[in-house]
Amino acid sequence: MRAIADTADVADGAAIGDGTRIWHLAQVREDAIVGNNCTIGRGAYVGPGVVVGSNCKLQNYALVYEPARLADGVFVGPAAVLTNDLHPRAVTPDGVLKSSEDWDAVGVTVGEGASIGARAVCVAPVAIGRWATVAAGAVVTKDVPDYAVVVGVPARQAGWVGEAGRPLKQDSAGRWLCPHTGRRYVESNGHLAPDAAC
Predict the structure, then answer these.
(1) Residue 1: is its pLDDT beyond 70?
(2) Domain that holds residue 191
(3) Rounded to an integer, what distance in angstroms lies between the CA atom of residue 194 and that of residue 186?
(4) Do 102 and 191 fall into the same domain?
(5) 45 and 95, same domain (yes or no)
(6) What is the domain-level CATH number for residue 39?
(7) 68 and 83: one domain?
(8) H helices then E strands: how many in the chain?
(9) Which residues are catalytic?
(10) H or E stretch including 115?
């Protein structure tokens, strides 16, 4: 069963999954798809045609502009923004107000289980890898690998995290270990993956 606040603005053409909660003043536009068991916080925005997987959380005032694609289990922190315009302008070079025909929307893609911190900005088109973490206030202008944690303006990689979101520690064999779950990971050519031998 869905729970949609009376003050939320959910377009008739939006598809909302079972168990999803949409809070006060949130807006979900036409043709958006929101999966099962999601939480769309107060004042959050989900643009036309955006796809949000199941078990996602968009915190208060998160702005997810079309054509963003969020996989299952994605967290978007308060006031984070996923942009959609390479060359933003209100008017054409002739001074005429731009319309939707005057630009090509580009989207942000967010992989399974990834987290985007409060007030972070992901500048489209970028891809945030599976289980990656974008720190609060970071500005992402390049793709983020799976399991990477990125910080700063512009965002740069500061380490690795596991599925639990905890920083990984390197062991004496050069593998990466999650201190919370005990899971081990192997790094190769700047990419991290779970250790198949464990």
Answers:
(1) yes
(2) 163-198
(3) 6
(4) no
(5) yes
(6) 2.160.10.10
(7) yes
(8) 0, 26
(9) 87
(10) strand 115-116
Using a CB cutoff of 8 Å and minimum separation of 24, what contacts does 22-26 make? 23/60
CB 133 within 8 A of CB 114: yes
* Same domain, residue pair 145 and 170: no
What mean pLDDT, rounded, does the chain reach? Answer: 95
CB 23 within 8 A of CB 8: yes
Task: Quickly tell me which residue has 């198949």 as its tokens.
Answer: 196
Query: Which residues does 139 contact at the CB level (< 8 Å), separation at least 6?
Result: 120, 121, 123, 152, 153, 154, 155
Q: In this structure, are 11 and 41 located in the same domain?
A: yes
Provide the β-strand partners of residue 159: 149
Residue 182, amino acid: G
Count how many domains the chain has: 2
The Cα 112–Cα 3 span in angstroms is 24
- In which band, very low, low, confident or very high, does the pLDDT at 103 lie, cut at 50, 70 and 90? confident
As a whole number, mean pLDDT of residues 85-103 equals 89
Query: CA-CA distance, 32 to 48, in Å (whole number)?
Result: 5
Q: What is the pLDDT of residue 107?
A: 95
Question: How far lies 139's CA from each of 114, 161, 177, in Å?
Answer: 16, 19, 27
User: What is the pLDDT, as a whole number, of residue 173?
Assistant: 83
